[in-house]
UniProtKB/TrEMBL annotation:
SUPFAM superfamilies: S-adenosyl-L-methionine-dependent methyltransferases (SSF53335). Residues 58-148 form the Methyltransferase domain. The keyword Calcium does not apply. One of its GO terms (molecular function) is transferase activity. Keywords: Transferase. It comes from Kolteria novifilia. This is Methyltransferase domain-containing protein. The keyword Transmembrane does not apply.
């Protein structure tokens, strides 16, 4: 993908902390993308994470309403999840969902800037993040925090949008994938596509912080993934 032919990036709000934004995101139908994320993560984890160890710790950076940790906790009853987000509004929705699913013993919330979590160094068996990267004005501190939390055998799986070549493609993707959602969700999706990074930009970010061993690939008409396997 030639960056010279790609429209410039338009950064958006880093933290989705407006109550209306948080509610729109928490109530949106994310069944398909979140199920796909969980399925791919479990595929990657199959040969690495200790499936029956009660000490397997998965850190989710930018957990939002914690839908993905909840889905994973249902499927993997021996794992523990630490769900991190900088939005207090979003974590209120997450707490309600965790209590509703009776998972408070295995999904713990942590209010913190995801670029400076203050969690223990090399404390994660796995680090996941879904559609967070494009929110960041500067992605390097995020990658540096992953590098700090990562141990020798830690599974890293980050999935995000990538920036289309022009606004015409952006509007087509919004019509295809968000037309049935709330107006706020459609607007956020549009802005997120404009704010996303290209695969080549992500590769450059990883090289800059010493995470060049992570693989970057396009996996859908709007998503890329970064993983350690």
């Amino acid at each position: 993908m030639d960056n010279e032919q790609i429209m410039p990036r338009v950064p958006e709000r880093e933290v989705m902390d407006m109550e209306g934004q948080a509610e729109a995101y928490a109530s949106a139908d994310l069944e398909q993308p979140n199920s796909a994320f969980v399925g791919r993560f479990l595929e990657l984890a199959e040969s690495g994470l200790p499936s029956e160890s009660p000490f397997a710790t998965v850190i989710d950076l930018g957990c939002g309403p914690a839908d993905i940790p909840i889905r994973l906790a249902r499927k993997c009853p021996h794992w523990r999840f630490l769900a991190v987000d900088a939005s207090a509004s979003m974590l209120r929705f997450a707490q309600s969902a965790i209590e509703r699913e009776q998972l408070t013993d295995r999904v713990r919330l942590h209010l913190a800037d995801i670029t400076e979590t203050h969690l223990a160094t090399q404390s994660a068996d796995a680090i996941i993040s879904n559609t967070l990267l494009h929110h960041l004005p500067d992605p390097l501190p995020f990658w540096n925090e992953i590098k700090r939390l990562r141990g020798v055998a830690t599974l890293v799986f980050v999935k995000d949008l990538f920036r289309p070549p022009n606004e015409e493609v952006v509007r087509a993707l919004v019509d295809q994938h968000a037309a049935g959602g709330p107006k706020q969700f459609q607007d956020d999706f549009y802005n997120s596509l404009l704010a996303a990074f290209t695969p080549e930009e992500v590769r450059q970010q990883l090289d800059a912080v010493g995470l060049g061993d992570l693989k970057v690939r396009i996996v859908s008409d709007r998503h890329l993934e970064v993983c350690s396997r």
